[in-house]
Design a protein that fits this description.
Strands 1, 2, 3, 4, 5, 6, 7, 8, 9 and 10 form a ten-stranded mixed sheet that branches. The protein has two domains: 162 residues, D-Maltodextrin-Binding Protein, domain 2; 117 residues, 3-Layer(aba) Sandwich (D-Maltodextrin-Binding Protein, domain 2). The protein has eleven helices and ten strands. It starts with 14 loop residues before the first helix and ends in a 6-residue tail after the last helix. β5, α6 and β6 form a beta-alpha-beta unit. It is of the alpha/beta class.
Length: 336
């Protein structure tokens, strides 16, 4: 802005100084162009996990991160930001720079929260761009090793006998463990009380300690505790038995016809992330799931890997939103 009342003075540079300015300008333009076209990534990539460390989502993220780091040639940092049913961590990513260096480990909760909590601090429809769907897996209905419940039928009988007395833990409001329990209540016609935690690890700790009765835990979170004998599995939440644990019956075949609920994992980036960066991350994830470390994780939890294009994840999440919004309404679930 020009100062009021003073004439504007224009200076014509000499031909020599003009030539120097042109050269400097061309050099700077070349440097900026080179920087702008530098291959992604040039620094560490951060994946925000909206749960406490030690749970199933955290385990999948850290295993995936190892493969991503190898493919991208940069360090991949896993940062846990639990709380508010995944909203704290999710909001942090939504407000991050759209440059591909901050990603969200998206889960089932991302499809449920829009109907569970309409007043989100970010727009579920516009805040993110899909990067890749990693895959999905069943949850497992688990109880502590010394629990009196030996089957799904035992749980149903106890819940029907004492409405509201049985408690089931989850890693937070809106998570797969929460809604799996809500769906169980609806289809089994029982009334169990939901107890949310700030992540799967503290929920499983209280389950083993007897503070809660059961949990529809992610397979990733429950696997090591089942293997060590600290937990007992009663049923899987998928439509069919898991190849990883074929001895565990489905909940549907155990007395709750039509019951299906699954966890899933994927990566989201803030909206505005360049398409070429999203493509690079998508390709890196496709390579990461082929590593031995990730294959071992898949075997442990029965994860069905599906790393297609970003559009695949967008369609998958939209379908999940529609399905679970009905469960939220039928179960009268609120955050109050």
């Amino acid at each position: 802005m020009f100062a009021k009342g003073k004439p504007v003075q224009f200076f014509r540079p000499s031909s020599a100084s003009h030539f120097v300015n042109l050269c400097v300008g061309a050099l700077l333009a070349g440097l900026f162009s080179s920087s702008a076209q530098a291959d992604f990534p040039e620094k560490a990539v951060r994946i925000v996990v909206p749960f406490a460390a030690g749970g199933g989502t955290d385990a999948v993220a850290r295993t995936l991160g190892v493969g991503l780091a190898a493919s991208l040639g940069q360090t991949v940092i896993i940062e846990n930001k639990p709380g508010a049913g995944t909203i704290i961590g999710t909001d942090a990513v939504a407000k991050s720079a759209p440059d591909g260096y901050t990603l969200l480990m998206a889960t089932f909760a991302n499809a449920v929260n829009p109907s569970l909590m309409p007043s989100l601090p970010y727009s579920a429809d516009t805040a993110f761009t899909p990067v890749v769907l990693i895959g999905w897996s069943p949850n497992i209905l688990v109880v502590r090793a010394d629990s009196p419940f030996k089957s799904v039928k035992d749980v149903i009988v106890a819940a029907q006998t004492n409405p509201g007395r049985l408690t089931y833990a989850s890693q937070g409001n809106g998570t797969s463990a929460h809604l799996a329990g809500a769906l169980f209540n609806i289809l089994a016609k029982v009334d169990m009380t939901h107890v949310p935690y700030r992540g799967a690890s503290p929920a499983l700790t209280d389950l083993m300690g007897g503070q809660v009765d059961l949990m529809f835990a992610t397979a990733a979170g429950a696997a090591p505790l089942l293997d060590s004998g600290k937990l007992r599995a009663l049923g899987v939440t998928a439509a069919e038995r898991s190849d990883a644990r074929p001895d565990i019956p489905t909940i549907a075949e155990s007395g709750v016809p039509g019951y299906v609920a699954q966890s899933w994992y994927g990566l989201l980036a803030p909206t505005g992330t360049p398409a070429n960066v999203v493509a690079r991350l998508n390709a890196a994830a496709a390579e990461a799931v082929k590593t031995e470390g990730f294959k071992t994780r898949v075997t442990e939890e029965g994860l069905v890997v599906s790393t297609g294009p970003p559009e695949q994840m967008e369609t998958f999440v939209r379908n999940e939103e529609k399905r679970w919004s009905q469960v939220v309404r039928d179960a009268h679930i609120t955050t109050n």
